[in-house]
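Q: Is it fine to ask for two folds in a single conversation?
A: Yes, each is treated on its own. Send the first.
Q: Here.
A: Result:
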Amino acid sequence: MARIHEYGEGEGDDDAASLIARHETLDSSFWIEQGDAVLAVSHIRFGAEGFFCQWHERSGHGILAAIGRGGHGLALAFDGGGEPLVIDGGCAIDRAAAIAVVERFLLDGGRSDAVRWGAGIVRTTLDVEHGWTFVEVGEPREPSGWLPAGLRSWLGGAVDPELPRTATWRVLTEVVVCDVEWLETLAETPMPCLRRVIVDAQAGSLAALPAAIAGAPELEELVVFGPEVARLPRLVSQSLRRITLGLGGPIGPVDDPPPDWRLAIEAALARCELPALEATSIVVNVELQDGELD
């Protein structure tokens, strides 16, 4: 038998439509126990407007899945308790879908087929996965709450094979590659939400860059600085819109560039296949916004 618990004073019938209606008006949440499973539902008013559902189990892996629609993306939102969330897979579901989810769970504790169940929840207030340091980038935009960037992290030092297996890897939208050895890892384990890549190519080869770019279907911007940009390999991307290339950057600026350096970079760039490219910047030293490499 289902047991319903409400955050705050909940009054009225316990059918799915009534539960959703009550919590569509109030900034509150409710949760339902059914056997060994728990369905928690929160109405989100900031960022991703709608209902956010979490599936719990009394034993096992805790939060197993979240509801998402459409393609990959990040939505910054707040649950009923005011905790910020980053939802992988889309915004919170709408009223009709939330009712369908609750109806099915009240019936037999199962998951409704009316929505696609995704995975990968990151609470931005908690450092829940060992080895990661990440920051929020950008602010929610009206009306849907999508982040222009999302979460940024740094990849440097010895390659840690455990990081690509984490939920954080899947929801990062921006990475700063401080060691080019990480490019091979990006190529082997694609990052579906990646929108921007900054590569410090002061030392090492860019041979793995084409595969890393090919494995990022949502990539919009690429920044590469270091002497290796003069030997930029052929890149192919259907989504890349902006690219910035420079011999040096904030870590190692170049005061005296070699002769014909710009012609070499232009020739390398001309070999690339980038049909969506809108803006190209070729400079001696790449200038990044404050804090991007801190």
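Q: Second one now.
A: Result:
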Amino acid sequence: MSVARALTFYLPVVLMAVSLLAAIGIGSLFFLKRSGEVRANRLYGGLLLAGGLTQLHFLLLFTGLAARYPALEFLPIYFTLWLPVLLFLHVKISLYPGYRMRLGDLKHFIFPVAQLLFFVSLWLIPSFRRPEGRYFYSPFYGGLEQALYLVIWPAYIIFAYQYLRRRRAQLRRSSLPRLLWYLRKLLKGSMLFVIAYAILALSDFISYNYFFVDMHDQPWYAGAQSLSYTVLLVWLSVYGFQVLLWGRRLLRSGTVD
């Protein structure tokens, strides 16, 4: 086994598998978590489960299993448009536990639910599938979907951060309450890794459309792209582990300077 093969294939596969298992394991525990707001816990648990299943989709593609068994590509486990919405609602309800979902909140789920129905229909009715799998104009699995992903993620992080700033202003404290401090770290870290993913995605778009170079043919690029999402998933999982480990502490009135 060559060093290049180990770095561009086996290492990403191991890291992707580890992040997948961590996200699903930690996400499942959030549904059993009793401290904190139950709805916020379940939203974060759903975020990690959706992230882990999406990682399984990427793993099937990266290892070539989806090419060998084409039906695997259309398993309804691809939740890219769910992730930012679940993160946003988790932060919002964590900050405002008394908030009750309204009819207007359904707008957040238009694209996520449509994406789920899209994959369910492809899984159940094979004739709906396109031979090339992804295609550019698909808003649920293709170039347009990636564009939505890159727009929606930063937008929802910004929306969540606005709620955090508003909540802090309402508390009128010189130091930051511990729960708000952790949520701010969660949002900042998520934005950083989303930007890294966006840089790779835009590089691929520019190279393909203007220089006629398909970056996906480059082993290093495929590895880097898979790792960019993996790092985001690891970040969300580590945060979730911290909340589970020190969950009661987060709810105390302690502050962080």
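Q: Anything structural to flag on that second result?
A: Two points. The mean pLDDT is 85. The CA atoms of residues 100 and 131 lie 44 Å apart.
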